[in-house]
């Protein structure tokens, strides 16, 4: 299976805070050589060619794709078919080459050690180590999969621009007592270390831990000092270069980790870097059903964010030093109905710093800026029509100590509705403030039409009837509310309405149907979702389903649709195939007593994004029993194995018409009304579960949905 892969985008680096992953490319010596990693074609594609060199220069490691040899207009925007090559600079022939195969995703980052150990980072957060002599994988691990469900929600949020777990992580190679290691130190403090010589995850000793602590501190302090001495806008710290492995991306990570790891020696350099002005990213809410502000006024929900300065200020406060309050958030005067259409506002406090404690209910945005200056964080919940500014302070009025001042605006942001002083997010709720800062560097995972809260999913099918079925299922789950679709309630997914479209609704076809080579429903659904997501460049949903019969050891399983031919396509019509499939099942069930004829329909839905790869997979199960003969009164609802499948759910059974309220195993699936089937079927249950998962992936309250 091709591992799903989060992509590098042209101006932001997927792994980091707007391109802020710290990547120490090849150990201590490599740190001083930012040119070790070269990205070819990064300006116009998501998976550029990569080249890197080991710290001592003994090895060169590259990953190149033929798709990158053509312009983006004539080639694929997400290149594949990469070739990995390890060679000595002095040799004509490589030590080994390795082709990207199967469903393996494209690489985003690579490293190489002086011993020839090569590392490839894949977008589902998988790190793969390759053998120096053969290029075969010696070990791979996925950081997200090591986390509990709760920790995944807290730390591993996925965005269109990348996985939040990777933001501000340190990635480096090092040697300790002649052993080579590759280490990832995540922003929340977890450390993952590969013993490259043994090809195992390292169970770290006290000495190894101490050595890595020292190495990380050295990386952070050296990065910050080099930056502070060089100044912005020149050399390796050119703010325009935020690609993975650049010194600017390493700087953003080092600035974040300095505060997380409480490195007080970093304060002086952080104070110098806070004064840099290296550019911003616009963060604009599409009106949240409110009218645009009048020309010259400020929309408090739309601003520009300086990712470096915001990160530096967070770390300074963590280290007990009040920042100089250089602006990290910039507001504009509205112009022509566009919140950020005019010039930056010139409103600042008279003393240049301001006092968040002076904010009072009834103030306008302009009055708040004059009293307290710009906020540190903006939070939006358009689905709940809620907007809040937050100010972090180390010492409030009268020496009251650290706090976060929350300023809540009225529905359309023209008046302060409430002001609260709460526990300081930078200390008591570090994860929350970290995620606030990280989110401000990313954009939503999918293009949600914020004006009406619509999330559009491409279903991996050319059959319009299947698209209609998914829309009916989504509508039913949304109407049923939390009991069917989790906390989404009305709208079905945390305020987002979901609409399915098919492959035939898209330009750019026909699309290549991937080969379903998986041995499970999960694998085949993932293969289809990831393949079509990459081909269409859209958020894509695919399902794989079938019948599992206990007495047949789980058959027909993944070959349910072609069971009569052992999974082969032989050109039969649907009706002919259904009859033959049912005939084979009945023949194999001859003599099996009723109580041993248990079976279930299973549906697995996979959701994939072209850059982030596989996002989520859900399973729905419809329990029942295999009857002794097909039963399809009037035949209008029966296809596949439905005429044989006696439904276990008593609520789905009943008398004529399958309207519900009867006995278990009293009706077949073919006898159920479509409205009932949309409530109890395996696909219905999988859709309902999917809707419960969407809010975590596409949080409308954060992105103006």
Class by alpha and beta content: alpha+beta
Q: What is the CATH C level class of the largest domain, in words?
A: Alpha Beta
Q: In total, how many beta strands? A: 29
CATH topology of the largest domain: Maf protein
Q: What spatial form do the alpha-carbon principal axes imply?
A: globular
**Major sheet:** 6 strands, mixed
* Amino-to-carboxy terminus distance: 34 Å
Question: Topology of this protein?
Answer:
Elements: E1 22-23, H1 28-31, E2 38-40, E3 49-53, E4 60-64, E5 83-87, E6 96-99, E7 109-112, E8 118-122, E9 126-130, E10 137-142, H2 149-155, E11 158-159, E12 162-163, E13 170-176, E14 179-185, E15 191-195, E16 200-201, H3 206-230, H4 247-260, H5 267-274, E17 281-283, E18 303-305, H6 307-318, E19 329-330, H7 365-372, E20 377-381, E21 386-393, E22 403-409, E23 416-422, H8 430-439, E24 454-459, H9 464-480, H10 482-485, E25 497-502, H11 521-536, E26 540-549, H12 574-588, E27 598-609, E28 613-626, E29 645-647, H13 674-680, H14 682-697, H15 700-703
Parallel strand pairs: 1-13, 24-25, 24-26
Antiparallel strand pairs: 2-3, 3-4, 4-5, 5-6, 7-8, 8-9, 9-10, 11-12, 13-14, 14-15, 15-16, 17-18, 18-19, 20-21, 21-22, 22-23, 26-27, 27-28, 28-29
Helix pairs in contact: 3-4, 3-5, 4-6, 5-6, 9-14, 13-14
């Amino acid at each position: 299976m091709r591992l799903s892969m989060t992509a590098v985008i042209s101006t932001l680096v997927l792994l980091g805070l707007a391109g802020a992953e710290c990547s120490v490319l090849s150990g201590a010596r490599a740190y001083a050589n930012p040119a070790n990693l070269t990205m070819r074609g990064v300006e116009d594609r998501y998976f550029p060619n990569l080249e890197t060199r080991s710290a001592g220069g003994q090895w060169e490691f590259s990953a190149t794709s033929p798709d990158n040899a053509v312009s983006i207009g004539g080639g694929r925007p997400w290149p594949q078919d990469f070739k990995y090559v390890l060679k000595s600079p002095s040799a004509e022939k490589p030590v080994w080459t390795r082709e990207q195969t199967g469903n393996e995703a494209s690489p985003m980052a690579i490293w190489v050690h002086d011993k020839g150990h090569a590392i490839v980072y894949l977008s589902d957060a998988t790190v793969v180590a390759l053998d120096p002599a053969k290029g075969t994988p010696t070990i791979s691990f996925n950081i997200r999969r090591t986390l509990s469900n709760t920790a995944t929600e807290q730390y591993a949020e996925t965005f269109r621009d990348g996985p939040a777990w990777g933001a501000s992580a340190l990635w480096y190679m090092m040697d300790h007592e002649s052993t080579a290691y590759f280490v990832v130190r995540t922003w929340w403090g977890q450390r993952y270390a590969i013993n490259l010589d043994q090809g195992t995850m390292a169970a770290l000793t006290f000495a190894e831990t101490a050595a890595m602590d020292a190495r990380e501190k050295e990386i952070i302090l050296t990065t910050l000092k080099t930056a502070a001495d060089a100044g912005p806008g020149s050399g390796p710290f050119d703010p325009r270069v935020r690609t993975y492995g650049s010194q600017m991306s390493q700087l953003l990570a080092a600035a974040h980790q300095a505060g997380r790891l409480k490195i007080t020696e970093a304060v002086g350099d952080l104070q110098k870097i806070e004064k840099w002005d290296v550019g911003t990213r616009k963060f604009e809410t599409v009106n949240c059903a409110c009218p645009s502000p009048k020309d010259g006024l400020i929309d408090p929900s739309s601003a520009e964010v300086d990712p470096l300065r915001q990160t530096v200020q967070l770390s300074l406060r963590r280290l007990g030093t009040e920042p100089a309050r250089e602006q990290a958030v910039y507001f504009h005067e509205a112009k022509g109905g566009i919140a950020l259409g005019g010039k930056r506002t010139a409103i600042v406090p008279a003393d240049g710093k301001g006092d968040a404690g002076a904010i009072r209910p009834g103030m306008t945005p302009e009055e708040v800026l004059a009293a307290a200056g710009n906020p540190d964080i903006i939070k939006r919940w358009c689905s709940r029509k809620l907007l809040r500014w937050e100010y972090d302070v180390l010492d409030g009025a009268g020496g009251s100590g650290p706090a976060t001042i929350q300023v809540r605006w009225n529905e359309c942001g023209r008046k302060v509705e409430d002001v609260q002083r709460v526990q300081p997010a930078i200390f008591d709720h570090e994860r929350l403030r970290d995620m606030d800062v990280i989110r401000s560097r990313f954009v939503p995972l999918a293009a949600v039409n914020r004006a009406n809260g619509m999330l559009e999913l491409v279903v991996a099918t050319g059959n319009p009837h299947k698209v209609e079925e998914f829309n009916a299922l989504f509508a039913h789950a949304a109407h049923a509310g939390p009991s069917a679709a989790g906390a989404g309630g009305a709208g079905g997914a945390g305020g987002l309405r979901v609409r399915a479209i098919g492959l035939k609704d898209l330009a750019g076809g026909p699309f290549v149907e991937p080969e379903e080579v998986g041995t499970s429903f999960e694998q085949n659904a993932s293969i289809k979702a990831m393949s079509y997501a990459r081909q269409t460049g859209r958020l894509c949903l695919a399902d794989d389903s079938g019948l599992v019969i206990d007495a047949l050891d789980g058959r027909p399983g993944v070959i349910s649709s072609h069971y009569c031919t052992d999974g082969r396509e032989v050109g039969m019509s649907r009706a002919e195939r259904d009859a033959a499939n049912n005939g084979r099942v009945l023949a194999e069930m001859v003599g099996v007593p009723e109580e041993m004829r248990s079976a279930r329909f299973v549906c697995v839905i996979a959701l994939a994004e072209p850059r982030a790869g596989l996002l989520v997979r859900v399973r729905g199960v419809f329990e029942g029993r295999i009857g002794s003969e097909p039963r399809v009164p009037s035949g209008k609802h029966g296809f596949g194995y439905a005429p044989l499948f006696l439904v276990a759910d008593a609520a789905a059974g009943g008398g004529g018409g399958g309207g519900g309220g009867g006995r278990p195993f009293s009706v077949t699936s073919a006898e159920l009304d479509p409205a009932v089937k949309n409530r109890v079927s395996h696909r219905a249950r999988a859709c309902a579960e999917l809707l419960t998962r969407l809010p975590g992936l596409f949080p409308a309250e954060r992105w103006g949905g």
